[in-house]
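The record is given unchanged here:
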Amino acid sequence: MGAELFRLSDRHGGEYCLGPTHEEAITSLIGAEKSLSYKHLPLRLYQTTTKFRDEMTPKFGLLRGREFYMKDMYTFDSTEAQAMETYNAVCVAYETLFRRLGVACLKAVGDTGSIGGSVSHEYHFIAETGEDKVFHCSKCGLSKNKELIDGDKPPCPEGLSATDCPIEHHHAIEVGHTFNLGTKYSQVFDASYVDPSGKHRTLEMGCYGLGVSRILAACIEVLSKGSEVRWPRLIAPYQVCIVPPKAGSKEEQGIQIAESLYDDISQLPGFRGEVVIDDRYDKTIGHRRKDANIIGYPYVIVVGKKALQQEHLFELHSTNIGNSNFVNMGELVQKLTTESAEL
C-alpha cells in the first residue's frame, strides 16, 4: 500500500497498521483451516467494516476520506473456471444493485493495482465532480479507466471508425471494485482444500468491494438538485414524510387527518417503518417543507387547506422527479403502492 498505509506504534514500540483492506487477514484464516474440503466450495466470506487509508488529499466529505465503510467479500474456489463463474455472478449482483438504485453506472475494465490479480472491473457513477476518468462507448461496449490507456483516447476494440464508434469521456466516482486474484494470496498463506482424491490443492481466490459510505455520498452528488437532496428510494432514510398544519392555524383540524393518514400509509405493503410525521406543530408548513427537502424523503405529503374539504386532497411532492400534485386518498395509495412494487 505504500504511503496510503496508516502506521502507528504503541508505548512498547510495537508497530501496527490500520487495515486498508483484508485479503491477507482473510486468506491467513483460510490457510489455517487444513481440513477444508472441495465439498465446502465455493466459499464466500463477507464483512462490512471500517477501513483506513492515509489519503494524500482527503476531500468531498464521504467521497474521499481517510476512514470509510466498505462491504468486502472474499471468495475461494477449486478451479480457475469456477472462480470466474463466481466472479461473473458477483458482477451481475453488483449490476443489479446499481440498477435498482436508479443511478447511471458504468462497469469499466480497471487497474489491478497493488491488490493484484488477472481480471479487474470498476463500477462508476457518472459525475462531473468525479476524480476518475472513464472512456465508454455504447456501440462497441468499450468501457475502460483512463489509467489503463496510452494516449489521449483508446482505439475501438472492433476497429470501427470514430463516426461509428462515438467513444465518450466521463468524469466518474468509483463506488465498487471486483478482482479475480487467482492464487496470489492463497499460495503465500498456503490456503488449500482437499480434492476428491485426498490431495491438497491451492485455492483460487477473488475479492470484491462496495464503498458503502461512498455510495451514499455519490448518490446525493449525482441525483440532488440545488437545495433539494434526492435519495434513491432503496436507501432513503424514510420513504414518506407527512407535513401537517401548524397548531393554532386555520387548518389546525388537519392535524388529526395527518395522524390518521400516517396510520393508513404505515399499513401499506412495504411502508411499515418507512413513514415519518413532522410533528413540530409550532413550525409553519413552509419551514418544514424546506427541512424535508434537505433530508431528501422520496415523498412529501402536505396536509393543508384542501385536506379539510369533503373529499380530502393532499399535496404529494415526488422529490426524485421534482413535481407536485393534489391527489385524493385513492390516488395517493395507488401511486405509493405501484412505485413501491417496482423496487
